[in-house]
Amino acid sequence: MGHGPQDVHGGVDPHLGRYAARTAGMTASEIRALFAVASRPEVVSLAGGMPNLAALPLRDIAAQTARIIAEDGLAALQYASAQGLPELREQICEVMALEGVRGHPDDVVVTVGSQMGLDLVARLFCDPGDVVLAEGPSYVGALGSFATYQAQVVHVAMDEHGLVPDRLRAALRQARNAGRRVKMLYTIPNFHNPSGVTLAVGRRAEILEICRAYGVLVVEDNPYGLLGFDGRTYPALHSLDPENVVYLGSFSKTFAPGLRVGWVLAPRAVREKLVLAAESATLCPPTLNQMVVSRHLATQDWRGQIDAFRETYRERRDAMLRALEDHLPPGCTWTEPDGGFYVWVRVPEGVDTRAMLPRAVDARVAYASGTGFYTNGLGGRRMRLSYCYPPPGRIREGVRRLAAVLEAEPAL
Ligand code: PMP
Question: Which residue ranges does the record assign to the Aminotransferase class I/classII large domain (predicted)?
Answer without folding.
Answer: 46-402
